[in-house]
Every structure is written in C-alpha cells, then in structure tokens.
Model the fold of this input.
Amino acid sequence: MEKLIKALTELEKLKTVERGTQVNGRKESTAEHSWSCILIADILIDYIEEPLDRLKIIEYLIYHDIVEIYAGDAKFNDPVQMKLKHAKEAEAFEKIMSIIPNAERFSAILNSYEQRVTRESQFAKAVDCLDSCIRNLNDDSKTSSDGFTEKLIREKYLPHVSQFKVTLELYEILMEKLRTANKL
Done:
C-alpha cells in the first residue's frame, strides 16, 4: 500500500506542471492538457474511417506527458530546452518507473506512444498537436510575436495530423483561424 500511495501522490503532481499556454490568464497544467486531449480524441474518433481502440487511445493520452512531472514542459520553439528534452525525459521516465506499480504495463504504453507504430498512437499524437492549436486559439494572450511561427508549427505538427483525414482538415482550419487572429 505504501508503494501505491507513493505512486498516486507523485502522479497527482502532473496538475502542478505548468505549460506555456494560458487558461484565463494563468498557465495551463499538463494534467489539463491531458484531459483536453482525451476529450478531443473521444469526440474525433467517431470521424475516423477505420476501427480504432478507444481505450488504447485514452491510455496513451492519460500518460503521454507523465514524464513532465519531473522533466517539465519543453517549448519546441526553444532550442536549448529541446536539446535537453530527451535526456531529462529519459531520467524522469526511469524515476516514474521506479515508483509506479505495474511499471511494465506503463512502460509499454509510453513506449508504444513514443514509437507511434500503432494507428492508435498515431491518432493520439495527432490529437496532442490539435490540442495545442485549439488552446492557442482560445488564449487571449497568444500573439504572433511569441516565436511559434507557422513554419515551425507546420514542421512539428503536420507529419502527425496528416495521418488522418479529419485531423488534417481540422488542423488546416485551426491554422487559418490562428493566422486570421494574428496568433501565427
């Protein structure tokens, strides 16, 4: 029970990890981002033209950023943060695996998500990209001067959102709205 309590109290810390995007004038937490991704995936999965395992997608999205508990969020427009990202996340992954019960199951989920060999992991990643676009559209403090250029966002997100017709269509509409709102 002590190991379970330790794991649950550590994982709960995801609520305290701040991301770069704003929600009502405050930083969004990684836990809020994960919840938003799950919501988006649950809605969009009905528009996918192939059978996907909803539970597997939800598992990916619940845990996809769990390493941020210890590694923090890395902004992809910051070369210094991106250079350190993989090492920090690998160290955080090991720490989480040392405290979490059934570490093999969680390791398999996280590795499958990162490798993107399943259609479910590819869909989860596409949703992760869409969430950032939606959040930035809703962020009143977001402007084109923050260094997240359209070119950079396209390089980062397009390979993932283009895997599914609905995610690509939604992405292009969101990009147009971000451009129109002078947020790119």
